[in-house]
């Protein structure tokens, strides 16, 4: 795990890198691809959630009563960017089953190329929750930046962003727009091509998760 810049973590764990390599393979089918996305999200989430606040609560064991730490405050929220971000949700929920799940949908204006929100449903009170925004691909950074903008507009404060693959261009844009959020990346790829696809990348994550073209 490398700290690339303030609040940006790029993972070097062998298990994460191995699973990402299988994701990249064009021969990897939908079922395996979907399972790998969940597994990688869970491995990344284990580290990304290491700073969740704790409070001591009283628990009665078979031996005696003791004070022992549990996650404090309102339950965290997982907010996937539709639709590919949905593939990472169950990996996070495996770690924190009590987490609430919101959704944010964006579309890009064909003329201005600016992202617009078409759907946003967030757990309330969002301002009291740790929010994990998920999207497997951080390419241009436009959708990620807009999603965090919208969540902040709704009152979200404690925001983490998780991407399995990122391009340097998208990472730079998101970090510069929101230097206060923690960004976690499974692998930082080389660049975007002329069609804004990440190289070497893994193709369209949404199509590969859901078996569409």
TrEMBL record:
Its cofactor is Mg(2+). One of its GO terms (biological process) is uracil salvage. The keyword Magnesium applies. Coiled coil: none annotated. Pathway: Pyrimidine metabolism; UMP biosynthesis via salvage pathway; UMP from uracil: step 1/1. 5-phospho-alpha-D-ribose 1-diphosphate binds at residues 83, 108, 135-143, 204. Uracil binds at residues 198, 203-205. It catalyses: UMP + diphosphate = 5-phospho-alpha-D-ribose 1-diphosphate + uracil. Residues 11-212 form the Phosphoribosyltransferase domain. GO terms for cellular component: cytoplasm. Allosterically activated by GTP. GO terms for molecular function: GTP binding; magnesium ion binding; uracil phosphoribosyltransferase activity. It is an enzyme of class 2 (transferase). Keywords: Allosteric enzyme, Glycosyltransferase, GTP-binding, Magnesium, Nucleotide-binding, Transferase. SUPFAM superfamilies: PRTase-like. Its EC number is 2.4.2.9. Belongs to the UPRTase family. Catalyzes the conversion of uracil and 5-phospho-alpha-D-ribose 1-diphosphate (PRPP) to UMP and diphosphate. PANTHER family: ADENINE PHOSPHORIBOSYLTRANSFERASE, URACIL PHOSPHORIBOSYLTRANSFERASE, CHLOROPLASTIC. This is Uracil phosphoribosyltransferase. It comes from Lacrimispora xylanisolvens.
């Amino acid at each position: 795990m490398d700290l690339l810049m303030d609040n940006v973590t790029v993972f070097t764990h062998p298990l994460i890198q191995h699973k990402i390599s299988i994701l990249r393979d064009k021969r990897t089918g939908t079922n395996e691809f979907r399972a790998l996305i969940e597994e990688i999200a869970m491995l990344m989430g284990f580290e990304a959630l290491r700073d969740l606040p704790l409070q001591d609560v009283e628990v009665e064991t078979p031996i005696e009563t003791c004070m022992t730490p549990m996650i404090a405050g309102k339950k965290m929220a997982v907010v996937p960017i539709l639709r590919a971000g949905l593939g990472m949700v169950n990996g996070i929920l495996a770690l924190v089953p009590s987490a609430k799940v919101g959704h944010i949908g964006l579309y890009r204006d064909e003329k201005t190329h600016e992202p617009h929100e078409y759907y946003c449903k967030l757990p309330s009170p969002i301002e009291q929750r740790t929010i994990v925004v998920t999207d497997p691909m951080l390419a241009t950074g436009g959708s990620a930046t807009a999603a965090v903008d919208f969540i902040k507009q709704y009152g979200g404060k404690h925001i983490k962003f998780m991407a399995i693959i990122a391009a340097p261009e998208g990472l730079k844009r998101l970090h510069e727009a929101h230097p206060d959020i923690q960004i976690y990346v499974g692998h930082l790829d080389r660049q975007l091509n002329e069609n804004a696809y990440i190289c070497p990348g893994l193709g369209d994550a949404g199509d590969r998760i859901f078996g569409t073209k």
